[in-house]
Each structure stands twice: as C-alpha cells, then as structure tokens.
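Before a colleague's protein record goes any further, I have to sign it off. What it holds is a sequence and that sequence's fold in token form. My question to you is simply how this chain folds and whether the tokens agree. Thanks in advance; the entry in question is below:
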Amino acid sequence: MLDHIAIRWRLAVVSAALTFVILAAFAVVIGQLTASRVRSDFNNQVAAAVDDLSDRYSFHVDNVGNVDLDGPDPNLYAASTGAVVRVLQRDGRLLSHTKQAPNFGILLGRTAETAGYRVETRVRTVPVRHARGPFAVPLIIQYGRPSSVVEATVSRVRLFLAGGVLGGTLLALLGGLIVGRRAMAPIAALTAGAREIAETRDPGRSLPRSRADDEVGRLGRTLQEMLDNLEASRTETEDALARQRQFVADASHELRTPLTSILANLELLAEVLDGEQREAAASALRSSQRMRRLVGDLLLLARADANRTVPHAPTDVGQVLVDAAAELGPLADAHVLTVDARPAIVDGSRDELHRMALNLMENAVRHTPPGTRVHAGVGQRDGEVVLTVEDDGPGVPEELHEQVFERFVRGAGDRGSSSGLGLSIVRAVAESHGGRVDLEDAHPGARFVVHLPPAADEPETESGPATAVLPPEPVISVRVTE
C-alpha cells in the first residue's frame, strides 16, 4: 500500500508514527505517575484537614453543668472545598455537621470510600475539667471530600497528555512533510529533467545540478555522465548509420547500370539459344531479375531512411493497382485474384506506388495456398484514398502483428523467395506519401489497408476506364469502375 504513496508522505507518516509511539508511551507513564501523585496529594489533604479539624474542637461547661461543643462551624470550614463534616459521639448522637452531609454511620474505618466521598475518620477523646472533677468525652470526627474532584483532575491531566500526544504527532507529520519536501526537491528536479528528456528524446539536455555533495548530488552527476555517454554513443551510431545508408544508396544506384546490361544480354541469349543453354540463360535471367528487384528495394529503403523523396505527380492509384495485378498474374500460382479498381488520384511517385501495390498482392500470394482468393481494391472513403488487399489464407500469426512491417521479418508460411523487405517497403512508401498502412483482422485471412491523402487538384482526364491485359492463368478477375 505504501508503494503507491509519495516518498515525502511515507517519511512524514513514519516520522509521525514513531513520534506517536514515543509520546504515547511517555504519556502513559507520566499519566500513571501523575494520577498516583494527584490521588496521594488528595488523600493527604483530606487526612490533614480531618486532623486539623479534630484539634480545633473542645468542650465548654457552663455554670449549671451543661457541656457544649466548641469549634469551627462545619459549613464555613468546608465551604471552599465542597467537603462534608460530621461530629458524633460514641452513642451516635450527631453534635455538628454540614448541610446535606450523607450519613456515613459510625462504623467506618480510618480511611474509606463511600457514597462518592473520600472519608477520613478520627476518634478523639476530649478532656473536660469540671468543678466536680475532670472527665473526658470521646468524639468521632468525619471529614469527606467528593472523589469526583480528584478523578476530574486525573481526567484533565490525561486529556492534556492525549492532546499533547496528538499535537506532537501532527507537528511531527507536518515537520516530516516539510523536511521530506525539501529533501526530495533535488529528486523532483531530476525527475522533471528526465521526463523532459524522455519527451523530447534529446539526451543532449542537461539535468539540474545539486551543489550538495550527498547521495542525491552524486546520483545527478552519475545520470548526467550517463546522458553524456548516451549522446556521444547516439552521435556515433547516427554517423555510422548515415554512412551505411549512403553506402547502400550509392551501391544500389551503381548496381542498377550493370544489372540492366546483364538483363539485356541474358534476354538476348534466352531468345537465340536452344535446349539446355536456353534454360540456363532463362534461369540466369530470372535470378538477375530478382537481384534487380532486391537492389531496387534497397535503394527505395535507403532513400526513405535518408528522407529523400522522388518527384511526385498526380497518379491514379486504381490504374497502378491494375498494372501491378497484370505484372503479378504469371506468378500468382493458381490463385483467384480479383481487382476492384476505382479511379483515385494521389500526389505521388508512380513507380513507388506500383511497388507498394505489387508487394501487397505478392505477399498475399506467397503466404496462402494455391486456389486461395486474393482480392485487391482501390476507392475513396472518409476523404482518403484507400487501397485494400485481403486474402482467405491462414492470416498473420498474433505474435507477428507488431513485427510484420519490420525489415527481414518472414512468416512461417512463406512459400516464395522473399527477402523479408516487402511489407517494410509498403510502410515506407505509404509514409513517404503522407499515409499509413494497417493490418486489420479478417476471418479468415489477412487484410492490409493503405490510407493515402488524395491529390489537392485532380487532373481532368478524357481516357476511359483503366484496363489490364492479364494472362489466362491463373484465374484473375479485374473489375474497373468509374
């Protein structure tokens, strides 16, 4: 539970809890000692009062021989303390008492608690001198004070101690928050700086520096050193990647010229040779064509990595899809390929869009068994040009959904000689044209959807619907609509 609370609050709570335990233990001990002392003082006061009172009483004998009790008025004597006084003889005859004094009886011990009073009793024999001879009169003097007085004092002491414990705990909590906040201020500054670096992805920024040579200061300096090293490493990596991309782009560009010459010569040889020599030339021609395509893929990706764009022009994606389907026809491996191409103009590179459409359909053909339906379509939806390629095959495994557009990722069902660059090129082309590509759930099969922004000004064309001449096999159905 405490793991979800800020550290300064945890420090404050722990500090307040320790303070509470210490103060509570102190209050219990002091409360017990104080209560015992208060009760002892109260008892001593009652005992001293009854002793003082008993010393003040005496007897007076008049001329006739009557004996009268002389002493302080009990009501006046006990008025300031709320006490009660009773003076009795041995036979129980009440000689003097305060108003509304309870009847304690005469059988009380020296000290007793009765009727809500703390009662002290003294028995005193008062001598009397008389002409006929001296004699003594025994007196029973009872002095009592309400026990509620001392208990109220004890309660006030305990309440005061409890208030002190709570007050001390609150002060400890407040002090802990203040100290924790000041102690965590450098950490908060480091956190804010790290968050800013994470948002901007710029390790070149500097973290706040602490002047104190403590754990936090050393942590800040260590993090800054780590960021400096990361920045240096990133710079080195970016330089290396830039050199690598430039090399790939240059090498791919330079390879296109000799490959074109090789292809032309191989095509000529395939036409003039016969028998096994012709088959060998045709095989070399197919390998060279795959090499030319791989070089083109690498060049396209190198341009995308270097943020280089080829010139864009208004292009009909529907016609591009038809052309790509016509090119794929001889390699479709008996798939049922259907195309629904509606005119949709975008501002883009025809070659790159052609490569994107061809890669999507070729990807569907490669990952589905013969005879499977592959459908491609182009249209406009929600102000976007949408190119869709879907199939009835086994679909993309769930674990590859996040990686399918990465480079050199190949599915387990790939039956062709894929280089693993097809879908990464699709994404690169879509993004270079201001769009995106999504893999959507389809049952069964897989559905890839490319979203592209339409051209701002569509050119007026007088040409009719786009058409494509496709070989009779595999089965291909192309429907082009206005």
Notes: Helices lie at 7-56, 74-77, 147-200, 215-272, 275-305, 317-328, 350-366, 422-432. Confidence is low (pLDDT under 50) at residues 459-476, 478-482. The chain has eight helices and 15 strands.
